[in-house]
């Protein structure tokens, strides 16, 4: 159904929109907690839970000694993060003239891939169409195997890109940046690195790099539920991002979980990760318990193999085809008229109300216009969510179970999920849905999960409980690092006190030569790699122009304070279309309900620090027009 039709409809036949809104509020109230985001255990920040972070994939022989990778304790550019974001920054910097051998990419992982390195659970695939999601398809000539690429393919493709651009020998794995300090006189960063190779003592290395890029990913630090007794449990337990195939059987290439036969398994969480895992667990486990707080809204995926002849003849037909496809994809996230042709034509392009989190140039311009805008979003969204709730009733045979699996919140409150087997899995006799009515489990004992007055003995617990919220903190927090800029400014304190001071989200006035990768003061697409690549191209342009202006001298490049203040004000003034997220069911989009409960002065900082409210294509238009001017307006190069 097109947006115009959905908005013109008085409603959905047989559905009382007011009652739906009331139900949304009731379900939201169940999830609100005083501890908010603190209800979770951030594994990387807790000594007691470090075992959950152990790398099951690392090839010790393939991890080079950090000292050998910095023979003079220097590199020209240091990139924090070896996922697809880090690779894109490397590629764009190479295109701008930096030699691959002058770049070093560090990561705590043992290889390239980022989220696709860590997450190798059974059933993993990307929920964005591969012809949009996989970057650099024109440059590599690669043809994705499926409409939605599986995790292993994405990881292998990352290695292919690293080879093609000469980056395979530039990575320093199992290494993190502990501390970065700006040296104003030398115009470079002093960086303390710590490498922790498996089976060895950690070693610290101090290096220098004129340029640093922080590309640590959106979802990189796993979290556990703060359930009382979690360390008392004596069975096997792990996080889904560190899948233990030695325990379950199978491998990333073969999800035959034969070692789960005869075992009682529980998976905690029903988000986008669990939706992909649950059908595989149900197939192999003696019994599967699915522990749910809030159900996912699960649409059709419609997976299929790629016809290579179709790919080359009908889609990849001319230069710029992938960018045009992404533009068409983005054009569906607006409350205005949809494009005449839907190139992607999947469930994402029916999720028009996601403009509430991605931004909308057709959104409200003043707070007075906000209530009518939110009402319009609900009118657009209701037919879709009702269709998805009806799908549950059609596929799940037990009406009581079906009722508990229905999602009562607007589409924009949580990342939509897509799967063709998840719902029907609950028709199996060996699958039990444990619905906690928004609370979560009450306790873990030595051998059981306790919910209310019911105890469920289990042999294995899998925590599909997600990651640290991507929109909180600062780049320093994302990297679990200390970053100290000009005049001793500590990034974590400065951003908490007044927010970032960037122009276009890519460079902060207080932290020269430190290239950022969003999302703060930048924009958002459901395809996060598009966001990152937009900033990577902008960063490479700025660096190339700054080098030209500096004429061979060491330099510091950053926005002027006036330009950064102006951009921050523009971000805040255009943030109104994003306000609908505040009243959502708690989740990582709204920091577990923390946004609307923050004091007014904190909300002002959030608005100034947040996303460009007019959407990703408008943001791209602005930064591309700025580049076309060729004057580096607002950017200062100090030699």
UniProtKB/TrEMBL annotation:
Its cofactor is FAD. SUPFAM superfamilies: FAD/NAD(P)-binding domain (SSF51905). The keyword Magnesium does not apply. Belongs to the FAD-binding monooxygenase family. This is FAD/NAD(P)-binding domain-containing protein. Coiled coil: none annotated. Keywords: FAD, Flavoprotein, NADP, Oxidoreductase. GO terms for molecular function: flavin adenine dinucleotide binding; N,N-dimethylaniline monooxygenase activity; NADP binding. InterPro entries: FAD-binding_Monooxygenases (IPR050775), FAD/NAD-bd_sf (IPR036188), Flavin_mOase-like (IPR020946).
């Amino acid at each position: 159904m097109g947006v115009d039709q959905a908005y013109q409809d008085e409603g959905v036949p047989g559905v009382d929109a007011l009652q739906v809104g009331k139900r949304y509020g009731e379900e939201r109230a169940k999830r609100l907690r005083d501890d908010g985001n603190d209800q979770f255990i951030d594994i990387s920040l807790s000594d007691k839970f470090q075992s959950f972070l152990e790398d099951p994939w690392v090839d010790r022989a393939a991890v080079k000694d950090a000292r050998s990778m910095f023979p003079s304790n220097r590199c020209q550019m240091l990139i924090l993060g070896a996922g697809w974001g880090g690779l894109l920054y490397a590629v764009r910097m190479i295109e701008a003239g930096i030699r691959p051998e002058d770049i070093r990419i560090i990561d705590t992982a043992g290889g390239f891939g980022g989220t696709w390195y860590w997450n190798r659970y059974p059933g993993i695939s990307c929920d964005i169409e591969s012809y949009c999601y996989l970057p650099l398809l024109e440059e590599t000539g690669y043809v994705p195997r499926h409409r939605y690429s599986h995790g292993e393919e994405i990881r292998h493709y990352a290695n292919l890109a690293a080879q093609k651009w000469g980056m395979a020998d530039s990575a320093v794995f199992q290494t993190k940046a502990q501390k970065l300090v700006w040296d104003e006189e030398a115009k470079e960063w002093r960086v303390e690195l710590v490498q922790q190779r498996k089976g060895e003592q950690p070693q610290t290395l101090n290096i220098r790099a004129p340029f640093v890029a922080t590309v640590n990913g959106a979802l990189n630090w796993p979290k556990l539920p703060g359930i009382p007794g979690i360390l008392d449990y004596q069975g096997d337990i792990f996080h889904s991002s560190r899948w233990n195939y030695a325990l379950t059987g199978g491998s990333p290439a073969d999800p035959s979980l034969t070692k789960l036969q005869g075992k009682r398994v529980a998976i905690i969480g029903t988000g986008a990760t669990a939706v992909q895992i649950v059908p595989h667990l149900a197939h192999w486990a003696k019994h599967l318990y699915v522990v749910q707080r809030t159900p996912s809204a699960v649409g059709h995926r419609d997976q299929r193999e790629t016809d290579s002849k179709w790919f080359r003849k009908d889609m990849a037909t001319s230069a710029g085809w992938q960018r045009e496809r992404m533009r068409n994809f983005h054009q569906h996230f607006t409350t205005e008229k949809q494009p005449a042709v839907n190139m992607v034509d999947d469930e994402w392009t029916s999720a028009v109300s996601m403009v509430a989190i991605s931004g909308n140039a057709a959104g409200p311009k003043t707070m007075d216009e906000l209530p009518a805008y939110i009402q319009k979003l609900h009118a657009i969204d209701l037919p879709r969510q009702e269709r998805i709730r009806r799908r549950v009733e059609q596929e799940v045979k037990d009406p009581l179970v079906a009722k508990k699996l229905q999602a009562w919140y607007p589409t924009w409150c949580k990342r939509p999920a897509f799967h063709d087997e998840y719902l029907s899995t609950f028709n199996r006799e060996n699958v039990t849905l444990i619905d906690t009515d928004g609370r979560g489990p009450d306790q873990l004992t030595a051998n059981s999960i306790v919910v209310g007055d019911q105890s469920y003995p289990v042999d294995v617990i899998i925590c599909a409980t997600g990651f640290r919220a991507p929109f909180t903190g600062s780049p320093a927090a994302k990297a679990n690092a200390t970053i100290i800029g000009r005049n001793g400014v500590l990034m974590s304190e400065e951003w908490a006190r007044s927010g970032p001071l960037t122009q276009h989200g890519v460079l902060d006035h207080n932290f020269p030569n430190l290239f950022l990768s969003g999302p703060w003061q930048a924009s958002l697409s459901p395809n996060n790699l598009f966001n990152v690549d937009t900033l990577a191209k902008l960063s490479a342009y700025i660096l190339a122009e700054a080098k030209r202006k500096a004429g061979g001298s060491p330099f510091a490049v950053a926005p002027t304070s006036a330009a950064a203040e102006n951009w921050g004000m523009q971000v805040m003034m255009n943030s109104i279309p994003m306000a609908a997220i505040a009243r959502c069911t708690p989740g990582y989009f709204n920091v577990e309900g923390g946004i609307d409960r923050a004091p007014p002065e904190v909300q002002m900082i959030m608005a100034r620090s947040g996303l460009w409210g007019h959407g990703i294509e408008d943001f791209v238009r602005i930064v591309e027009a700025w580049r076309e001017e060729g004057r580096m307006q607002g950017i200062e190069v100090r030699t």
